[in-house]
Amino acid sequence: MDEIDWQILAELQEDGRLSITDLAARVGLSVSPCHRRVRALEETGVIRGYRAVPDPAAAGFGFEAVVFVYMARTDKDTVVDLESRLAAIPEIIEAERLFGEPDFLLRIVTASLETYQALYDEVLTALPGVEKVRSTIVMRHVVAERGLPARPRQAP
Asked: Euclidean distance between the first and final Cα of the chain, in Å?
């Protein structure tokens, strides 16, 4: 990626609804070359897609927890099954499999503490292969979902 590609990526991360005309003007290109570059970034997987970024509280999800999942068994079948089950729980808005402990890190949103407690008691702790589940309540987002840095930092 060259400097213009990085500029395109930065602009689209800031506003994914920019028209190609507006994007081209911001990065100093004419429309056709800008469009070709955006298409190339999409085709190579640098840009995976476009989506709205809703505010969870404004959408009725006023409770958020970071959840740590520890597995009793980590054989391949158990892990694959758990990953599939986690992906099917709509309140899990982010799930990461980790090296070391815990085994998984989840970000979960619900309408309230009570609805989270029901999800915790009835679903999370009942998942096959799970040894324990630990939660912490999100107090406030200090750095909310943001785009990538302008470019990768180079090692000294």
From this structure: 21
As a whole number of angstroms, the distance between CA 22 and CA 8 comes to: 11
C-alpha–C-alpha distance, residues 146 and 9, integer Å: 12
Rg (CA), the chain: 20
Mean pLDDT of 134-154: 87
Q: Measuring CA to CA, which residue among 49, 23, 48 is closest to residue 36? A: 23
Residue 8 has which token pair?
Answer: 């395109």
Per-residue pLDDT reduced to its tens digit, 65-108? 999 999 999 999 999 999 999 999 999 999 999 999 999 999 99
Q: How far apart are CA 66 and CA 155, in angstroms?
A: 31
How is residue 36 written in tokens?
């070709």
CA distance linking residue 57 with residue 110, whole number of Å: 9
Query: What are the pLDDT digits (tens) for 30-78?
Result: 999 999 999 999 999 999 999 888 889 999 999 999 999 999 999 999 9
- Give just the sign of the alpha carbon dihedral 79, 90, 60, 130: negative
Q: Look up the pTM and report it.
A: 0.83
Residue among 47, 54, 51 nearest 148 (CA) = 47
- Residue 136's pLDDT band, with cuts at 50, 70 and 90, is very high
